[in-house]
Design a protein that fits this description.
Distance between the termini: 50 Å
Shape: globular
Structural class: mainly alpha
Helix content: 55-70%
Largest sheet: 2 strands, antiparallel
Length: 517
C-alpha cells in the first residue's frame, strides 16, 4: 500500500476540519471561560496539542501500513485520531474552572495558571488510565456483542455530530445544503469530478466561496501576525500541580473521563473491524494513552483519543496518508498560531457537510455490520446517546433563557417545572450520566434476550446494577449551570437493573417459546 493515494486528500480535509474545530474550541473556551492569557495558550497549550496529535497520527499511519503489508491488502485505512471533544469540555468546566475559582478565593497570585495546571494533572491521569486499560480492553471487546459497540457509537454520531451539523446546515442552507449536495454526489453517488478533483476539496472550496458571498466570512476581527512557538516540556508545572492537591478533588471526573475515553476508543476499533480493518487493540489503546501523556508533558490540558468515523474515511478512499497529512497540518497551525487566520477565512460551515456525512455513515454501519435479527438491540443502543444529546439541548435552552447563573442557578425545582409540560427531565439527566455504559449494557442485554441466552442477558444487567451502585451511571448532582456526574450510588437504578437480571435468570422456568410472534 502506498503512503499517499488520492482518497487521502478527501480524508485529510475531513479529519483536519474535525481537529481544527477542537483547536478553535480550545481557544474560545480557554479565553472566554477560563480567562487564560493568549501567551499561555499559544506557547504552551497549542504546542503541547501539536505534539500529542503528531505522534498519534504518525503511529496510526504506520500501524495501517503494517496491517496492509501483513494482509496483502491496499485498502487499509488508518484509525482517525485527535483531541477528545467530551474530555475537552469536561476538563474546562469540571476541573479547570473550579480550580481557578478556588485559587481566586484563596488569593493565589495567578489563578489562571492554577487552572491550567489542574488541567495538566487531569490529562496526565487520563492518559495513564487509558494506557493501563490497554492490557484488558481486548477481552472486553471480544465479550461484547458487535451490536452493543456499534450502536453506542452510532448514538453519539446521531446526537452529537449528525443533528448538530444538520441543524446548522438548515440554518444556513445556501452554504450547508449546497456543500451537502457535493458530498451526496461524490460519496453517496460514488462518482468524482472531472480532473480528479477530490469531493472534499470541492465542498470546502465551494463552501468558502459561498460563505464569503453570503457574509458568513470573513471573521469580524483581523487576527495578529503569526509567530512560531516550539514545544517545551512543562515538567516543573506538572510537579507543582501534583503537589498542589489538584488530583484528589477532581478524581471522580478524571476516572469517569478516563473510562469514557477507553470505552469510546474500544468502540471505534470495533467500528474499524466492522469496516474490514482488524487492528490489534492493545497497541492502539496504548498509543492513545501515550498521546494524552505527551500532551500533558508538553503543556496541553486536553487528552487525545481514537476518533469516531473510520468507516466514513475508508469509504471515501483514505488510507494511511490522510493521517500523516493531518498530523503535519495541525502541527504547523499550532506552532505558528495561524488558527485565528484560518477561522477568519474559512468558516466551519464550509466543511460541515463532510462531518455530517461521517455521522450518517457511522449510524448506517450499526445496522449494516450486525446480524439482521439484532436490529432491535441496535435501536436500543442508539437511544441513550440521543437522550444525552437531548439533555445538552435542554440545558442550552435554559441557559439561553437566562438560567445557569449564580443569580438563577439550576436546581432540583426544575424537575417539577418540566413535568408540568410532561417532560420527564429527571429521566433525561439520569440517562445522560454514563450514557455510554447504559447504551452498551442495555444493547448487549437485548442481544442476549434475542438469542435466548438468559444468563448472558442477566450478567449484562447485573453489571449495569453494579455500575449504578458505584455512581458511574445515572447519578448526577446540580451545579449552578449544569448537571454533572456525582459518583454517589444511584440505588433506584441499581435495584431496577437487579430486578431485570433476576427476571432473565428465571426465564428458563417462567417462559416458553412463542415462535408465532
Amino acid at each position: 500500500m502506498r503512503w499517499f493515494v488520492r482518497g487521502d486528500l478527501d480524508g485529510f480535509f475531513g479529519l483536519a476540519l474535525d481537529n481544527l474545530v477542537q483547536l478553535l474550541l480550545i481557544e474560545s473556551l480557554c479565553v472566554g471561560v477560563l480567562g487564560l492569557p493568549p501567551d499561555l495558550i499559544d506557547s504552551r497549550i497549542l504546542p503541547g496539542a501539536a505534539v500529542s496529535i503528531l505522534v498519534g497520527n504518525v503511529f496510526y499511519a504506520i500501524q495501517a501500513r503494517r496491517l496492509a503489508a501483513r494482509t496483502g491488502r491496499t485498502d487499509v485505512c488508518a484509525l482517525p485520531y485527535g483531541i477528545n471533544t467530551v474530555s475537552l469540555v469536561a476538563h474546562v468546566f469540571l476541573v479547570m474552572l473550579p480550580a481557578k475559582a478556588i485559587a481566586t478565593a484563596a488569593g493565589a497570585p495567578d489563578p489562571a495558571r492554577v487552572a491550567w495546571q489542574a488541567g495538566l494533572v487531569a490529562t496526565l491521569s487520563s492518559g495513564i488510565i487509558e494506557f493501563a486499560a490497554a492490557f484488558v480492553a481486548e477481552r472486553v471487546r471480544k465479550a461484547t456483542p458487535r451490536a452493543a459497540l456499534l450502536s453506542t457509537l452510532a448514538g453519539i454520531a446521531l446526537g452529537f455530530i449528525t443533528f448538530g451539523f444538520l441543524f446548522r446546515a438548515f440554518a444556513r442552507p445556501i452554504v450547508g445544503l449546497t456543500t451537502f449536495g457535493v458530498v451526496m454526489l461524490t460519496y453517496f453517488g460514488r462518482v468524482r469530478f472531472k480532473g480528479h478533483l477530490p469531493g472534499g476539496l470541492v465542498a470546502i472550496a465551494l463552501g468558502t466561496l459561498l460563505a464569503w458571498i453570503t457574509g458568513l466570512a470573513p471573521g469580524a476581527v483581523v487576527p495578529p501576525a503569526a509567530s512560531w512557538h516550539l514545544p517545551v516540556p512543562v515538567i516543573g508545572d506538572l510537579i507543582e500541580a501534583l503537589g498542589g492537591g489538584h488530583l484528589v478533588p477532581y478524581l471522580s471526573v478524571i476516572i469517569a473521563m478516563g473510562l469514557f475515553n477507553v470505552l469510546g476508543s474500544l468502540q471505534n476499533i470495533e467500528s474499524a473491524e466492522a469496516a474490514g480493518d482488524l487492528y490489534d487493540t492493545r497497541p492502539a489503546l496504548m498509543m492513545n494513552g501515550i498521546g494524552s501523556i505527551a500532551a500533558a508533558l508538553f503543556g496541553s490540558a486536553f487528552p487525545t483519543t481514537i476518533y469516531i468515523g473510520h468507516p466514513g474515511w475508508k469509504a471515501i478512499g483514505a488510507r494511511a496518508g490522510y493521517s500523516i497529512l493531518n498530523g503535519a497540518f495541525i502541527t504547523v497551525i499550532c506552532l505558528t498560531g495561524t488558527i485565528a487566520w484560518i477561522s477568519w477565512a474559512v468558516p466551519i460551515d464550509a466543511g460541515m457537510a463532510i462531518v455530517l456525512w461521517i455521522g450518517i455513515v457511522i449510524s448506517a454501519q450499526a445496522f449494516e455490520a450486525t446480524p439482521r435479527e439484532h436490529a432491535a438491540a441496535v435501536v436500543v443502543g442508539l437511544l441513550p446517546g440521543i437522550g444525552a444529546w437531548a439533555a445538552l439541548i435542554a440545558k442550552n435552552g435554559l441557559r439561553a433563557a437566562g438560567m445557569g447563573t449564580d443569580a438563577h442557578p439550576f436546581t432540583a425545582a426544575l424537575i417539577g417545572e418540566f413535568q408540568k409540560s410532561d417532560t420527564w427531565i429527571h429521566g433525561v439527566f439520569s440517562l445522560e450520566q454514563g450514557f455510554l455504559f447504559t447504551a452498551m449494557l442495555l444493547s448487549a442485554a437485548v442481544v442476549g434476550v434475542i438469542e435466548r441466552r438468559w444468563r448472558t442477558a442477566a450478567a449484562w444487567c447485573g453489571l449495569a446494577a453494579a455500575l449504578s451502585a458505584t455512581g458511574l451511571m445515572h447519578s448526577y448532582r446540580w451545579t449552578p449551570s449544569d448537571t454533572v456526574l456525582s459518583l454517589t450510588p444511584a440505588w433506584p437504578f441499581a435495584i431496577a437493573y437487579a430486578a431485570m437480571a433476576l427476571l432473565f435468570l428465571t426465564a428458563s422456568w417462567t417462559t416458553e417459546p412463542n415462535e408465532g410472534h
